Amino acid sequence: MVRDKGLRAVVVGAGITGLTSACRLAESGYRVTVIEARDGPGDGSSHANAGQLLFDRVSAMGSPGFLKSLPKTLADRSQGVGALGLAAPGNWPWALAFLRQCSASAWRRNTRDMLELARLSKPAFHGFLDRHPLAFDWRRPGKLIVHPTEAALAAAARTADFQARFGGRHAVLTAEETLAREPALQGTARPIAGAIHLPDAELGDCRAFCAGLVGVLRDRLGGEVRFGTKATGLVRRNGLVQALATPQGDIPADLFVLATGRAAELLPRFRGRKPLVGVRGVSLTYPAGPAAPELSVTDAGGKFVVLRLGDRVRVAGFAAFTDDTTPTDAECALLRDKGRSLMPGAAEYDAAPEAWAGLRPQTPDDLPMIGRAGADNLFVTAGQGSLGWTFAFGSAERLLQAVAQ
């Protein structure tokens, strides 16, 4: 039961992080208003992300292996990785901080901390669904991460063994076992030496979930969501934030939460602030084909994923440091060809797909900023990167803990 504190909270951002935070604040007793510049929920990074919920197998991007493979990856344009955006002076602080996270010890520390946040999300996510059932094409089919060579598979197995210290299950499969586990891979043109099987992996439509959260907030928890309203600044007085400034007028409240990838534009300087950069991903969503996959399948060599969401199949990939959110014809053609080469019958690849590109706000160490942000009543939860869907409920729990302190 919601306990009415009579306190007002304003949350900036109606993506998965903002709406999850808003619902949990409302459940704890706050009268919540969500402010969103776009016209609908989940229209930014949450719109058409890969849909994966990996509560026990997340990993930091920064590592010695990442640096070692980067020149080859950048030279191979089919990988869809672009770092030219980091040459912009405004991104230099992020790039320098990221380089400091590429040691073996930093990777282990960051991966451990990411796993702790992801594992906090799992019971909170399912507990919320027990209280507020929603339809969003959720399944727990498991996942395959296929690797093109024996050496790559062995390295992935070592990583999985490290991750397993913090919970979760995995198995290393041969090529034959991989094809048997997911029949949609039959006829693949991609090299497969084997795979890491994650039996507990879940998936769902993040945008549909965001729409469901809006309904929960408005209809069950007494909250409000204002779309088409851009936050332009913070009205501060005597060390506290008094109101959120918007073109439609100031919105007063007792508590303010910045839960958007653009949070850095509003954040004051505070201890623990991290630079953010947008990492652009692309996805194509097709009608399901005659041999749509049951499992979510990542091709580690090609750096893309194919999965089924209800009667649709999504192919997602690419990671480019840029502010451009328009998918190009070349990107769409490359991603389509990758999906077709991995699973020829998975999707109606000749149909016109729903093409999407979105910026995933990322910190140098892959750990989001969650906590007080320079004023006693101002908080931030931002920088969840490509794991916003997985981290959302864990981030909301951390936010509630910070607010209570």
TrEMBL record:
Which superkingdom, per the lineage? Answer: Bacteria
Q: Which residues form the FAD dependent oxidoreductase domain?
A: 9-399
Claim: Oxidoreductase is one of the keywords in the record: yes
Asked whether the keyword Cytoplasm is assigned, the reply is no
UniProt keywords (A-Z) are:
Oxidoreductase
InterPro entries per the UniProt record, alphabetical: FAD-dep_OxRdtase (IPR006076), FAD/NAD-bd_sf (IPR036188)
Classification via Pfam families: DAO
Entry's family note: Belongs to the DadA oxidoreductase family.
PANTHER family linked to this entry: D-AMINO ACID DEHYDROGENASE, SARCOSINE DEHYDROGENASE-RELATED
- Tell me the protein's name: FAD-dependent oxidoreductase
Traced from the root, the source organism's taxonomic lineage reads: Bacteria, Pseudomonadati, Pseudomonadota, Alphaproteobacteria, Rhodobacterales
